[in-house]
Design goal:
This protein has about 120 residues and is α+β, with helices and mostly antiparallel strands. The protein contains four helices and six strands. Strand 2 and strand 3 form a beta hairpin.
Length: about 120
């Protein structure tokens, strides 16, 4: 498993590979949107320190199971009530990228227009 800077780059690249995905920096934080809706917050949370990784995604299907992971918690700002889950990793952590990419795709599917989802499924 790669170190966090490589993990962050891989997650960003994966998110941007999804149909209609665009990167923006509102509030000074990296987000990836589809159809003007955020589907992933990607960066470090305040107080995490340099080199940490923070990731927040909307998980309507797997959110409950994801929250059982030791590095997951409901997203703040009342987003957790809407199915958003935040993952935090310290600089020395080496998280598995595959499940995190699956969470990013689930979040994309939750907010993307249905025609984009159908096109991805047909490809």
């Amino acid at each position: 498993m790669p170190p966090l800077p490589e993990t962050t780059a891989a997650l960003r690249d994966f998110a941007l590979s999804l149909p209609g995905a665009v990167e923006e920096f509102p509030w000074g934080e990296r987000v990836v949107k589809v159809n003007k809706k955020v589907f992933v917050f990607l960066g470090m949370a305040a107080g995490d320190g340099p080199g940490a990784l923070g990731l927040s995604v909307k998980l309507p299907e797997s959110g409950e199971a994801a929250l059982e992971l030791p590095y997951a918690k409901p997203t703040g700002y009342n987003l957790g009530k809407s199915g958003w889950v935040s993952f935090r990793f310290a600089p020395g952590d080496r998280p598995d990228i595959a499940p995190l990419c699956a969470y990013i795709e689930e979040s994309w599917r939750a907010v993307a227009p249905k025609k984009l989802v159908r096109a991805r499924d047909a490809a």
